[in-house]
Amino acid sequence: MSDAADVSFTTRGYIQGEDALTDLRISSGSYTLIMRGDVMDPGMPGAGVFVGTLTNSESAGLEDVLRESKKYPGFTPAPLIDKYVRAFYAKGEKLAKLDASINLSTGDGRLIVDVTLKNSGRERICLKSPSTWEGHYNPMSGSSFVRISAIRKGTNGKGLGQSFRTREFGGSNMIPMSNDPGAEICIPSMQEHAVRFWAFPDGEIKSGTYSVGASFVIRDVLEPKELSDGLEFFAINKEIVIPRDYPSTPEETRAFAAYLKTHAQE
User: Fold this and answer.
1) Which strand ranges, in their side-by-side order, compose the sheet holding 22-27?
2) Strand 110-119, strand 93-107: pairing
3) For 162-204, how does the pLDDT look when each residue is reduced to its tens digit (9 = 90+)?
4) Residue 158, C-beta contacts closer than 8 angstroms, at least 6 positions apart
5) Cβ-contact 109, 255 below 8 angstroms
């Protein structure tokens, strides 16, 4: 592309909502990729801002993309820019990169969900504390939440106890920890922040090894400004061993039965 070109491609092809859009900005031979999340494919977990310099072949290819994109007023179809989004996600310098990992255990008759938020970029990331997250899906006004899903290894997830998921949860499910910062958290470059929640699965869980993932929707990102429109992203999938069936103790059986009474199964 010409050095004078300032071009921006915006797509909503990687998310389910309307806010966490992906922007690819080209200016003077450089790119800025603002990836606010991909909930269609776990191959690009997390969210972030990536920058770098275009190669000659990338510049020429984006000229073709620009011509083709003019056929589509409004949002750019994701397939037109997907090649470049994936390449720049993989190789770009990370101005800010937020990832999440999870671990599961049991306690007080419930699932305990430990979340680690990590910033592997060079600038800090600030967002409203998980204690403020609404914990439910609201397509009209927006909300922040976490949702867990898991499939037992070696199965297709079908059959009693072979897979499970949780409802969306947030601040009302948060378990206080010593690092609770109040209304906001800021994660410096190359640092982590731990959060702990409780949740219930949607059904019984058989012991075994599970591929466990989580989806995050975070509506209030304060820094960097490029991510202020909110994030929708997958955590990095993880294999977690569930050492025994759930529920399998009297405490768990009582707690799970009480939960089922107040939450109709979908």
Assistant:
1) 6-11, 22-27, 30-35, 47-53, 93-107, 110-119, 191-199
2) antiparallel
3) 899 999 999 999 998 766 667 899 999 999 999 999 999 999 9
4) none
5) yes
In the structure encoding, which two tokens stand for residue 232, read together? 């929708």
Say whether pTM exceeds 0.70.
Answer: yes
Q: State both tokens at 144.
A: 């922040």
Tokens of 53: 């310099």
Question: Domain locations in the chain?
Answer: 6-91, 98-262
Under the banding of pLDDT at 50, 70 and 90, the label for residue 142 is: confident
Element (H, E) at 78: helix 78-91
**Residue 76 and residue 82: Cα distance in Å, rounded?**
10
HSE value, Cβ hemisphere, 13 Å, CA-based, for 142? 13
Query: CA 80 to CA 69: how far, in whole Å?
Result: 8
3-class DSSP assignment, residue 22? strand
Q: Locate tokens 């997250």: which residue? A: 133
Q: What is the pLDDT of residues 77-131, one digit of tens each?
A: 999 999 999 999 999 999 999 999 999 999 999 999 999 999 999 999 999 999 9
Share of the chain above pLDDT 70, in %: 94
- Rounded-to-integer distance, Cα 159 and Cα 136, Å: 27
